[in-house]
Amino acid sequence: MRPVIQSIIDELYARHHRSGRVDLNDIAEIIGPRGVSYEEVDHIVDRLEALGLVVGEAIDATEVTVMKRVLGAARSLRASLGRNPTIAEIALSSGHPAHVVRRALERGVSPRVVRSY
User: Fold this and answer.
1) Which label site among 12, 18, 77, 108 has the fewest CB atoms less than 10 Å from its CB?
2) Among 80, 85, 87, 117, which residue's Cα sits nearest to residue 104?
3) Nearest-angstrom CA–CA distance, 74 and 70
4) Which of 35, 31, 25, 57 is nearest to 44 (CA)?
5) CB 40 within 8 A of CB 5
6) pLDDT of residue 109
7) What digits encode the pLDDT tens for the residues 79-110?
8) Contacts of 109 (CB under 8 A, 6+ apart)
């Protein structure tokens, strides 16, 4: 691991260890103009989670409602279709755009599972 990556992790942990949460914008702010690859960002997130921090924005009540609707539509479609539904099918069934459906599905499972796809 490059020293710059460890310094980013150290700074983020120092800033956020008391609150237990790191917003994605904070990660971007600390990285700033430094050249960091996607793999290194993924490593930063993994290390912060391993240190006990939650990475990402907090979910508000509106997002919970959307997640329930999207996940409910996905379950219903899975049962009726006999297979996993597509994003487009879930979007049509739930009444939400595809990008909202993708985000709700990502938030509806463990971040580690999503990154392992």
Assistant:
1) 18
2) 87
3) 6
4) 31
5) yes
6) 60
7) 999 999 999 999 999 999 998 898 888 777 64
8) none
